[in-house]
């Protein structure tokens, strides 16, 4: 076998391969030998069928498989010899093998461009120091007390007020018919907490226990159920009882219900949980800023088109999943498929640029991912997704996902190395502090409001999901970015359920 490498562009390579007739005949003979061992041909014992009969009877299958096997073997051999890693699918331009004739074919694929790496060690970056205020601890305590509140019926006959619980049966009607999915019996609605549309709560606040009422309500244009968005229905409801939530005092008994030994242990646990999450978030934000600063200073370089298009495909799948959870489709956005793709292009290009840079750093530093690290990562993924390891491993192997997984781990390792080599200066947290992330000790509120709102974490975009995963699951940012939005949402849902 002889081959010639042609550089069609900074990111595209074409390799022309010439195979002598002797190798062609050897490839055909190897495939025929396999068929001889398995083929059942009348008049011959298994494994004793003459090669000429096998070649004649199974000509199409033999020549097709021999061609594919030979090309695949030679591609691996060529890539290994060139130390070249395709960044796209390999396109093969080949006819079929012909006995006793030389064989010529060509392959074309994309590669990462060569980078002149800038200085990436010893750079200065600021990381926000971790601060957990007493007010934040008190806020979590308040939610724990709220979850342990005792609900009692108010004996006074009067309309309910904000903060009280209205036990109601209700239904939405259109043209005299009940609207499926917008109905409930003896539903406990906490007023004043945006669990239902304001018009519905206002109507409930006019009723006393035992009374019924109705009002016309127009659903918002962005209502989760597209069939009802912008539609007007008649909401009918009956108020059965008005209840109040009596919160207990914080005691060791309440702390034990939340999974802690006592109040002091609980407060320490909440503070440590916030601090750990915030430390990971602050470090991740600083790492991201450092990486953006470095890449921003690199002269523009060409990106493999297939990598960018593949990244856009992933972003579109994430968007489709998010819309599907809202009962919507692409058409609800009022954009053409082409407009959606172009809208995601800048984000996709930035992601590909970051990956190419980090892989170049990994190569420069001689970073490697061992089989043990691959195995450990797959084991972790199997535990998190509750799948048997062997099934997940087979899925990754069958779908050619091992190499992308290895690249993702290499990016993580390169990013960590760059940050470890940086001069990190801790700075004070902004005075406003921002809204704290929900601590994992908080129990989820079991009350819902039908289709209007669902519980748990609901990500608005991939960036928000990645930030959450870094803070709550301890993932590296580049690892989190490698997951689809759908997978991150699935893991968030599972995390919330386990903490509830």
UniProtKB/TrEMBL annotation:
Name listed for the protein in its UniProt record: Trigger factor
The protein's Enzyme Commission number: 5.2.1.8
GO MF assignments: peptidyl-prolyl cis-trans isomerase activity; protein folding chaperone; ribosome binding
Cell cycle as UniProt keyword: yes
Signal peptide stretch: none
Gene Ontology CC: cytoplasm
Superkingdom in the source lineage: Bacteria
The organism of origin for this protein: Pseudodesulfovibrio hydrargyri
Compartments reported by the entry: Cytoplasm
Biological process terms in GO annotation: 'de novo' cotranslational protein folding; cell division; protein transport; protein unfolding
Pfam families tied to this protein: FKBP_C, Trigger_C, Trigger_N
Major localization listed first in the record, in broad terms: cytoplasm
Residue span(s) of domain Trigger factor C-terminal: 263-418
HAMAP family membership: Trigger_factor_Tig
Bias (Basic and acidic residues): 439-452
Coiled-coil ranges (or none): none
Catalyzed reaction equations: [protein]-peptidylproline (omega=180) = [protein]-peptidylproline (omega=0)
Keyword Glycoprotein: no
First-tier enzyme category under EC: isomerase
Stated family: Belongs to the FKBP-type PPIase family. Tig subfamily.
Sequence ranges assigned to domain Trigger factor ribosome-binding bacterial in this UniProt record: 1-139
Physiological role: Involved in protein export. Acts as a chaperone by maintaining the newly synthesized protein in an open conformation. Functions as a peptidyl-prolyl cis-trans isomerase.
Stretches assigned to the PPIase FKBP-type domain: 159-239
Keyword set, alphabetical order: Cell cycle, Cell division, Chaperone, Cytoplasm, Isomerase, Rotamase
Region (Disordered): 432-458
Domain remark in the UniProt entry: Consists of 3 domains; the N-terminus binds the ribosome, the middle domain has PPIase activity, while the C-terminus has intrinsic chaperone activity on its own.
């Amino acid at each position: 076998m002889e081959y010639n490498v042609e550089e069609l562009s900074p990111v595209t390579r074409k390799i022309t391969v010439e195979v002598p007739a002797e190798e062609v005949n050897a490839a055909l003979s190897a495939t025929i030998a396999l068929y001889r061992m398995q083929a059942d041909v009348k008049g011959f014992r298994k494994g004793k069928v003459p090669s000429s009969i096998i070649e004649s009877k199974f000509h199409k299958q033999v020549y097709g498989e021999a061609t594919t096997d030979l090309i695949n073997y030679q591609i691996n051999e060529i890539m290994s010899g060139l130390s070249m890693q395709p960044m796209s699918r390999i396109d093969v331009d080949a006819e079929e093998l012909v006995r006793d004739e030389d064989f010529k074919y060509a392959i074309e694929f994309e590669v990462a461009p060569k980078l002149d790496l800038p200085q990436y060690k010893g750079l200065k970056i600021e990381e926000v120091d971790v601060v957990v205020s007493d007010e934040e601890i008190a806020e979590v305590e308040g939610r724990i007390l709220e979850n342990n509140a005792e609900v009692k019926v108010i004996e006074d006959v009067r309309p309910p007020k904000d903060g009280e619980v209205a036990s109601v049966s209700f239904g939405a009607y259109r043209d005299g018919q009940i609207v499926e999915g917008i109905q409930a019996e003896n539903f406990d609605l906490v007023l004043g907490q945006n669990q239902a549309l304001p018009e519905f709560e206002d109507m409930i606040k006019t009723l006393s226990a035992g009374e019924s009422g109705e009002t016309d309500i127009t659903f918002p244009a962005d209502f989760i159920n597209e069939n009802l968005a912008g539609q007007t229905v008649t909401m009918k409801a009956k108020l059965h009882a008005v209840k109040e939530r009596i919160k207990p005092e914080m005691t060791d008994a309440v702390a034990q219900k939340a999974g802690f030994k006592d109040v002091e242990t609980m407060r320490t646990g909440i503070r440590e949980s916030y601090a750990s999450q915030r430390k990971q978030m602050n470090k991740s934000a600083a790492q991201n800023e450092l990486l953006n600063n470095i890449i921003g200073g690199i002269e523009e370089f060409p990106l493999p088109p297939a990598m960018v298009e593949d990244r856009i495909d992933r972003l579109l799948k994430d968007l489709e999943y998010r819309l599907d959870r809202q009962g919507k489709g692409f058409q609800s956005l009022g954009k053409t498929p082409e407009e959606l793709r172009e809208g995601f292009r800048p984000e996709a290009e930035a992601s590909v640029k970051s990956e190419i840079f980090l892989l170049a750093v990994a190569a420069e530093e001689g970073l490697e991912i061992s089989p043990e690290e691959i195995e450990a990562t797959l084991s972790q993924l199997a535990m998190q997704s509750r799948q048997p390891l062997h099934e997940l491993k087979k899925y990754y192997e069958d779908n050619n996902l091992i190499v992308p997984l290895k690249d993702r781990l290499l990016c993580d390792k390169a990013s960590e190395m760059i940050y470890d080599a940086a001069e990190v200066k801790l700075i004070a947290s902004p005075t406003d502090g921002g809204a704290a992330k929900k601590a994992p000790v908080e129990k989820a509120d079991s009350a819902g409001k039908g289709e209007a709102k669902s519980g748990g974490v609901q990500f608005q975009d991939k960036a928000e999901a990645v930030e959450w995963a870094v803070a709550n699951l301890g993932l590296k940012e580049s690892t989190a970015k490698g997951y689809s939005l759908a997978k991150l949402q699935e893991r968030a849902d599972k995390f919330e359920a386990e903490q509830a």
